[in-house]
Amino acid sequence: MSLTLTVDGERWRRHLLATVERHPGIVPVAKGNGYGLTLGRLARRAQWLADHASDTGAPVDTIAVGTYDEVEQAATRYDGDLLVLTPWRPFGAALDLDPRTAARVIHTVSRVEDLGDLRERHPQARFVLEQLTSMLRHGMTRRDLAAAADALGQGRSGLRGVAMHLPLNTTSHLGEVTRLINDVVASGLPTRTVFVSHLTGAELARLATSYPDFTVRPRIGTDLWLGDRGALSVTATVLDVHEVERGDTFGYRGRSAPKHGHIVVVSGGTAHGIGLEAPTGDQSLKARAATLARGGLDAVGFVRSPFSIDGKQRLFAEPPHMQASMLFVPSGARVPRIGEDIDVRVRFTATDFDRVVVG
Question: Rounded to an integer, what distance in angstroms lies between the CA atom of residue 184 and that of residue 146?
């Protein structure tokens, strides 16, 4: 009676090992809901990858977490360093780390003033300096990097490299990355290590050739944990089935059945992320037209759900409830039996499962 993520363990583990082998210096990203697999499970699996370094030829000595609140969850399951992606600030959870864990943390610093504050509070702190990319989220400009270099002097003083968080959906990052690396060289920073996100394998290979004196460390989450979608399947359990005639009322809002069919109640609702659609980055005319169409369908109660029966996505009978959803199956279609599992399409980063089963 659950929304369940089932993982073909052998296939998934082969994919993880192959991905690490293809990306020497990889920094696995384990953050948020753990890409649907849970953060704790990913931290344990990262330790497993570290233990299999002799098989891949690529040590996994660092993982990245999203926030300081996630540090302890990962630290109890993984033995290496913990790179925090959210920039350090002189307030909040960043100041409350357990001293034993803090020694394993690599901070991200995105402002010159924070660099001075961090080093004053924690002289032994290790950190990376984040550069400002075209995302305009966090980061230092070329001038800021030069100021940071002046503050650090010739010693490394805890500096472990620079970090670049690049946007998605661009044709190529190489032009921007080249400019950013040139900014590092011009700043005089005493480092030749770059942590990067969202570069393709071809782009990483090209950088290694163009900058042989630099160590490029890819931070990889989605392509690592979810890169072989064939190893992952999501199912919901049919909890109840009710035959309805045209005009019969049902649900919280007393909606009417449009015609003869069945109301099929399945596990999975808003508490799991079902029906809570994240904004899309697709700005095409087709995507905008689809959004308008969904809005129109919602007005009359017909919205395609992520639940499929015999390969066909069925409509929500009404908006999903907290832990269950009501689907409308029209007359003539096969009606699943109570207890049967049906397929669900989800966005893994926005879904919390009742059960994760790894074979």
Answer: 8
Burial status of residue 142 (CB atoms within 10 A of its CB: 0-12, 13-18, 19 or more): middle
Task: Tell me which DSSP letter residue 69 carries.
Answer: G
DSSP state of 242: E
Closest of 162, 164, 186 to residue 174, by C-alpha: 164
Within 8 A by CB and 6+ apart from 63, the residues are 27, 28, 29, 30, 43, 46, 74, 78, 80, 81, 82, 83
Going 185 to 187 to 190 to 192, the CA torsion angle's sign is negative
Strand-pair category, 261-267 with 232-244: antiparallel
Cα distance between residue 298 and residue 285, in whole Å: 20
pLDDT at 300 over 60: no
> What does the block give as tokens for 316?
């929500």
User: Cα–Cα distance between 39 and 231 in angstroms, integer?
Assistant: 19
Strand pairing class (324-330; 312-316): antiparallel
**Domains in the chain and their CATH numbers?**
3-227 (3.20.20.10), 232-358 (2.40.37.10)
> CA 87, CA 130: separation in Å to the nearest integer?
8
Q: Is 213 exposed, middle or buried (0-12, 13-18, 19+ CB in 10 A)?
A: exposed
pLDDT of residue 1: 81
Whether 299 has a pLDDT exceeding 70, the answer reads no
The model carries a pTM of 0.91
Radius of gyration for the chain, computed over Cα atoms and rounded to the nearest angstrom: 24
For residue 7, the surrounding DSSP H or E stretch is strand 3-7
